[in-house]
Amino acid sequence: MIKKCIGFIIKFFNSYFQKSIKNKMIIAITFSLIIPLTIVTLLSFTRASNSMEEAIIKSNTKAIKGTGKFIDKTISLQNDALFTFLVDQNLSSNVDRTDDSNYMVQSDSKNYIYGKMTSLLYSNNNYNGLIFFNESKMQIFYVSDETKNYSSELTPTNEIWYSNSINHPVGTIINDSNFIPKDLNFARSQKDKSFFVFRRLTEFTNKFNGVIFLNVKWKIMNDILDILKTEDESDVLITDLEGNIAYNPYGANADKPEIKEAIKLIKKDNISENSYIKTKEYSVFYCKIANSKMLALKIVPNKFIVKGAKGTLNISILIIIISLILCVLIAIAIAYETTKPIRRLSSAMKGIRDNQLISLIPTGRLDEIGVLEQSYSFMIEKIKNLIENEYKIKMEKRTAQLKALQAQINPHFLNNSLQLIGGIAISKNVPEIYVIIKAISNMFFYSIKINEELVPLQQEILYLKDYLLIQQSRFTDRIDVELNIDESLNLYVLPKLIIQPIVENAFRHGLEKKTGLWKLSISALRIDNNLNIIVTDNGVGIDENKLQQINSQLVNNLNSVFELGESMGVKNVDARLKLYFGSEYGIKISSEQQKGTTVILTLAAFLKGEIK
Fold first, then answer.
1. Cβ atoms of residues 114 and 143 within 8 Å
2. What pTM does this model have?
3. Which of 87, 91, 256, 393 is deepest in the core (most CB within 10 A)?
4. Would you say residue 609 lies in a domain?
């Protein structure tokens, strides 16, 4: 089984590389780059692993210091938000009017204060609520994301929060929910751990005039703590100076011996501004935050630091893999550029099989590939000339066939016309005879005397009107003809004698076999860059299978030869349209038995002189 697998792999690689010079170059260049690069990477790993522990310690020391700065900055920003609230020039005046005798003034003032507090509350989704106490009015305004409240019946001078507001430094984090008025216990009901930031409102004399508390979720610090917790084995938390855990975002076991011992060691170390302590089992990184009233801790097991060498090895392996990828990409780029002219020539030669004769732009190369490109371009030009000559011969053949066809007269149509003229001459002495003779004369003159292959739509319609005049005289009161030709289309050119054969076909195969009134509609319209001529009759229609067969023949009708029969059929008109305008143009037929047939002639819309 193993031999078969190895044989299959060898066979696959042999087949893969035999088919492409580019693949061979990729492998050769890749190996020449990756082998020395791998050796250098392994040597670098050996040296780097020796200093890994020091690097981890430095990294964590720097990270804990940055964490402390970020936390202090975050606290400062909350303090700034409170300052912005208090410096509002309209706040003081609205506070003064909260007990105004006019109820509307009183209500507007309260709503203004609530609006300011609500705006601050919803400026950050980590805010739980705000409490604003006004000393002069003995009022408390309270807003949270669930409710708002107001109280003016206060005697707070004996409460702890009142004295703490006066005595604590501005902006200090207060982690104790007892710090605020006991009746406003929204912080105690919050699932998320939170802390308070407050700011006093003072007069110019520094007299205490009130305070505002902002309750903030500890998870506002999660972003920086996530960055600090780079290892799954480490514990990251925030405590006070006594070791009481204020925030434990990652669910560390508070009873862990290392956490308790870490606090003891930090106290013993006199809690310097930020430091590092190492024991036999773990390393502790810490820094003071919140005006040096709290600690940010990271505890990392020493076994993880020892495993740093393994991490370095993984990084080295990753570097080798990335280097391998880069080497492969470089090899591909070099091989691609080197073999580009060969593949360009190969692609062009493959196009010949799909009838795509692509000429190569000269690159000016003087090597063997340049000789191949020149020879290929010479061959393509010769093939194009041969095809062009063949096309001209085919066009001249069709033109000769058309001119031969123009010299013929439809015996059946001529016989009927003469019978009609004779009948009118015998039975009536009326000018209709002249009109019919004139129409026949115009038709012969148009088909024989006009030398242009492309004629304006206006002339083709005049020829068609003469034909319809004779048919209407033949079938008196049986034909209802509708011509819808916009005058703006009169000067668009089309091959001569392409509408009348379609109309004649409608009479012979659709209308003459139908009893009752015959309806015939001829219209022309322009859609984008195409000119559509639509002939519709209410004749007997075409069998579905036969209709499908006709449309299928019309799709591949470019190389058909004109049939010099009784009339120019649908197939001949379609072939002429494809020759003049391209294979995407021609005739499309739709029909329903006993309801009628619609023939759409699609050709490119050109004015005289625009078409080559």
1. yes
2. 0.43
3. 91
4. no
Whether residue 259 is found in the same domain as residue 343: no
User: Residue 304 — very low, low, confident or very high, per pLDDT cuts 50/70/90?
Assistant: confident
3-state secondary structure of 591: strand
Q: Specify whether 130 is located in the same domain as 252.
A: yes
Residue 5 lies in a domain: no
In this structure, the answer to whether residues 339 and 286 fall within a common structural domain is no
Percent of the chain surpassing pLDDT 90 = 14
Overall average pLDDT of the 51-75 stretch: 85
3-state secondary structure of 455: strand
Please report, for the domain that includes residue 105, its CATH number.
Answer: 3.30.450.30
- The 3-class SS string of 218-234 reads HHHHHHHHHHHCCCCCC
CATH number at residue 480: 3.30.565.10
pLDDT in tens, 446-461: 776 656 788 999 999 9
Residue 602 scores a pLDDT above 70: yes
- Same-domain check for residues 226 and 246: yes
For 527, the domain range is: 408-604
- Of 226-235, 320-329, 534-543, where does mean pLDDT reach its minimum? 320-329
209-243 pLDDT, tens digit per residue, is 788 888 888 889 898 998 888 888 888 988 887 77
Residues 129 and 247 in one domain: yes
Whether 84 is in a domain gets the answer: yes
Mind giving me the DSSP string for 263-325? Answer: HHHHHHTT--SEEEEE-SSEEEEEEEETTTTEEEEEEEEHHHHHTHHHHHHHHHHHHHHHHHH
* Residues β-bridged to residue 286: 275, 297
Q: Report, as an integer, the average pLDDT of 263-273.
A: 66
Please report, for residues 230, 542, 548, 554, 606, the alpha-carbon distance to residue 574 in angstroms, rounded to integers and kept in the order given. Answer: 75, 18, 16, 7, 18
3 state SS of 19: coil
Query: Can you name the residues that pair with 150 across neighbouring β-strands?
Result: 141
CB-CB contact of 575 with 583 (8 Å): no
User: What sign does the CA torsion over 74, 76, 77, 79 have?
Assistant: positive
Residues 340 and 412 in one domain: no
* Neighbour-count burial of 123, counting CB atoms closer than 10 A to its CB (0-12 exposed, 13-18 middle, 19+ buried): exposed
| Domain endpoint, select from 306, 324, 341 | 306
d(CA 238, CA 225): 10
- Strand ranges (E), 79-207: 127-134, 139-144, 148-151, 194-202
Return d(Cα 70, Cα 60) in angstroms, integer: 15
Considering the domain architecture, whether residues 166 and 299 belong to the same structural domain is answered as yes
Same-domain pairing of 55 and 76: yes
Q: Which residues pair with 211 in a beta bridge?
A: 133, 200
CA-based radius of gyration for the chain: 48
Report the DSSP beta bridge partners of residue 83.
Answer: none
AA letter at 172:
T
What's the total number of domains in the chain?
A: 3
Given a contact cutoff of 8 angstroms between Cβ atoms, the answer to whether 302 and 291 are in contact is no
Count the neighbouring beta carbons within 10 Å of the beta carbon of residue 552. Answer: 10
Tokens 């407050």 sit on residue: 198
Q: Which residue has the higher pLDDT, 376 or 69?
A: 69
Q: Judge contact between 561 and 401, C-beta under 8 A.
A: yes
Strands 245-247 and 235-240: antiparallel
pLDDT of residue 566: 41
pLDDT digits (tens, 9 = 90+) for 484-517: 999 999 999 999 889 999 999 999 888 888 888 9
In this predicted structure, what is the pLDDT of residue 561? 47
Q: Is 403 inside a domain boundary?
A: no
